[in-house]
Design a protein that fits this description.
Elements lengths: L16 E3 L14 E5 H7 L6 E10 L4 E15 L4 H6 L1 E2 L2 H7 L9 E4 L6 H12 L3 E4 L5 E5 L2
Parallel strand pairs: 2-4
Antiparallel strand pairs: 1-4, 2-5, 3-4, 6-8, 7-8
């Protein structure tokens, strides 16, 4: 997630922050960055703004022939409450570059969501996306205002 979504954001997540925001500003130096937690997840973990959480990612190690755990320390810098159980109970929001590092994606992304001024141009926008990104798989989210395109 980009920390500054601007005036015309694709997501409405910023409206649901109960503490903090999408700037992910940390107050500690011993962490890799800031994260925002869903309100229910925060309660389950007893992790609140200012606390440190350790997230475990995995990276394939060819020398071992298996995935090995990678531990990342983040400061909780915000909480959100969308009213949707799945998001509030299990989602963590963090800046895109930080998420790429966590998931060992280098500079790759697994999906992108855009907002269209003219929903009637959805098909042309998908074609433009394919030309820009190679051959992504485009699908409509059902919302006339958004279009998702996932790189191969």
């Amino acid at each position: 997630m980009e920390p500054d979504t601007g005036r015309r954001a694709v997501t409405i997540l910023p409206r649901h922050f109960t503490k903090g925001d999408l700037t992910f500003r940390t107050t500690r130096e011993d962490v890799e960055g800031g994260v925002a937690l869903g309100a229910r997840l925060s309660g389950k973990l007893s992790a609140f703004p200012g606390d440190v959480v350790t997230l475990v990612g995995a990276k394939f190690a060819p020398t071992v022939g298996a995935f090995v755990p990678r531990y990342h320390r983040y400061e909780v810098t915000g909480l959100f409450d969308t009213g949707m159980y799945e998001y509030d109970n299990s989602y963590v929001a963090m800046p895109r570059a930080q998420a790429q590092k966590f998931a060992a994606l280098d500079s790759a992304v697994t999906g992108i969501e855009v907002r269209l001024d003219d929903p009637g141009r959805r098909g042309r926008s998908a074609g433009s996306s394919r030309r820009s990104w190679g051959t992504p798989t485009a699908r409509s989210t059902g919302s006339p205002r958004t279009h998702r395109s996932s790189p191969p």
